[in-house]
C-alpha cells in the first residue's frame, strides 16, 4: 500500500489525479477501522492532515461559513457552536472526545454513511459541498451529494475541499436515537432548522433510508401551516396536533431497513417522535427569542 502525504492542496489534487483509487485520510476514524478489520485494502492512502487549507474556516462574501474539510468536530463545537448550532449539536454526539478531536465533517461526507451524524444538520441548513480536482472546483448541494449507500457524487479524481453553510437564522435542533447514550452509531437521527426570514423549515433524516435525505413534504407542510395561522409573525404556541402531524410526515419520508441496531418499524416510530419533539423545542426557542 502506497502512502501519499502532500503538504499543499495543489499537491493533494495532483496526487488524487495520478492515483484516483487512493483513499483520502483525514481524521482516520472511519478509514482506520476498515483497515484494522480488513474490510478494505486500498492500493494507496492519501494523507490530507498536512494540508493547512483544509483545517481553516472563514466567512464568504455572501455571509456563509466556509468550513474546511479537515476542521474537527471539537473545533466546530468550540468555535462555531453559536453560528452553526445544529451541526454543533450533532458533533457533540460523535463518538468520544478522542474521536471528536480527530474526526471531521469532510470525512463524514466522504464516507457517506446513512448513519453519519453530520448529514441531517447539513441537509436541514441547505449546505453545499465544495469539491475540487486538477480540472477545477464545483459546488454540490448536500441534498444531491449522497447517491447511494456509502456512495457520493465525487468524481474519482475529486477531493472534498469544504462545506458552505449559512449561519443559523433561527433555532436548530438535532436528535439521535442509539442503542446506548454515548459512543454509538445512530439507529435513527433527525435534524431541523427554522428559517424565519423566509418562513421556511429545513429537515434532515439520518440512518433511516439508503442515503441521508430531507423530508421536503413535511417541511413544506409545517412552514405552510405556520404561515396560514400567522404564527411566524405572532410567535404563538405551536399546536400539538400540528407537531404530531409533522412527525407523521417526516416518518413517511423515510425508507428504513431492519438491521442489528434496530427494526424498520422502530426507526419509523422514533423518527416521528424526534421530529415532533425537534419542532416543539425549536419553536419554543423561537418564541423565547422574541
Please characterize this protein's 3D structure:
There is one protein chain. The longest helix is centred in the last third of the chain and has 25 residues. The protein has a five-stranded antiparallel sheet with strand order 4-5-10-6-7. Strands 1-3-2 form a three-stranded parallel sheet, with helices on one face. A three-stranded antiparallel sheet has the order 11-12-13. The protein has 290 residues and is an alpha+beta fold. Helices cover 38% and strands 21% of the residues.
SSE series: EHEHEEEHHHHHEEHEEEEEEHHHH
The profile of the biggest β sheet is: 5 strands, antiparallel
Low-confidence parts: none
Query: How would you state the average pLDDT, rounded?
Result: 96
Helix content: 25-40%
Which descriptors apply to this entry?
290 residues; alpha+beta; five-stranded antiparallel sheet; three-stranded parallel sheet; globular
Give a short overview.
By secondary structure, this protein is of the alpha+beta class. The protein has helices at 9-18, 31-36, 73-80, 85-92, 97-102, 105-111, 119-124, 142-145, 216-228, 231-234, 240-253, 264-288; strands at residues 2-4, 23-25, 44-47, 57-59, 65-68, 128-133, 136-141, 146-148, 151-152, 159-165, 172-177, 188-195, 200-206.
How do the helices and strands line up, and which of them pair or pack?
Blueprint: E1 2-4, H1 9-18, E2 23-25, H2 31-36, E3 44-47, E4 57-59, E5 65-68, H3 73-80, H4 85-92, H5 97-102, H6 105-111, H7 119-124, E6 128-133, E7 136-141, H8 142-145, E8 146-148, E9 151-152, E10 159-165, E11 172-177, E12 188-195, E13 200-206, H9 216-228, H10 231-234, H11 240-253, H12 264-288
Parallel strand pairs: 1-3, 2-3
Antiparallel strand pairs: 4-5, 5-10, 6-7, 6-10, 8-9, 11-12, 12-13
Helix pairs in contact: 3-4, 9-11, 11-12
Amino acid at each position: 500500500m502506497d502512502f501519499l502525504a502532500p503538504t499543499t492542496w495543489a499537491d493533494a489534487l495532483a496526487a488524487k489525479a495520478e492515483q484516483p483509487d487512493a483513499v483520502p485520510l483525514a481524521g482516520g476514524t472511519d478509514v482506520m477501522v476498515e483497515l484494522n478489520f480488513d474490510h478494505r485494502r486500498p492500493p494507496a492512502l492519501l494523507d490530507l492532515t498536512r494540508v493547512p487549507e483544509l483545517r481553516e474556516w472563514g466567512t464568504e462574501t455572501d455571509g456563509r461559513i466556509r468550513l474546511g474539510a479537515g476542521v474537527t468536530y471539537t473545533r466546530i463545537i468550540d468555535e462555531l457552536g453559536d453560528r452553526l448550532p445544529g451541526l454543533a449539536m450533532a458533533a457533540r454526539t460523535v463518538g468520544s472526545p478522542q474521536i471528536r478531536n480527530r474526526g471531521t465533517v469532510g470525512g463524514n461526507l466522504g464516507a457517506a454513511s446513512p448513519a453519519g451524524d453530520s448529514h441531517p444538520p447539513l441537509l436541514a441548513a441547505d449546505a453545499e459541498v465544495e469539491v475540487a480536482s486538477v480540472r477545477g472546483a464545483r459546488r454540490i448541494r448536500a441534498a444531491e451529494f449522497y447517491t447511494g449507500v456509502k456512495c457520493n457524487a465525487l468524481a474519482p479524481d475529486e477531493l472534498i475541499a469544504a462545506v458552505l453553510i449559512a449561519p443559523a437564522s433561527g433555532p436548530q435542533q438535532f436528535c439521535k436515537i442509539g442503542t446506548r447514550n454515548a459512543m454509538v452509531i445512530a439507529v435513527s437521527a433527525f435534524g431541523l432548522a427554522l428559517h424565519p426570514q423566509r418562513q421556511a423549515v429545513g429537515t434532515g433524516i439520518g440512518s433511516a433510508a439508503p442515503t441521508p435525505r430531507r423530508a421536503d413534504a413535511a417541511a413544506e407542510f409545517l412552514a405552510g401551516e405556520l404561515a396560514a395561522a400567522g404564527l411566524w409573525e405572532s410567535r404563538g404556541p405551536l399546536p400539538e396536533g400540528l407537531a404530531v402531524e409533522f412527525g407523521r410526515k417526516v416518518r413517511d419520508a423515510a425508507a428504513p431497513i431492519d438491521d442489528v441496531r434496530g427494526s424498520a418499524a422502530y426507526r419509523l416510530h422514533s423518527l416521528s417522535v424526534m421530529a415532533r419533539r425537534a419542532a416543539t423545542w425549536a419553536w419554543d426557542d423561537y418564541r423565547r427569542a422574541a
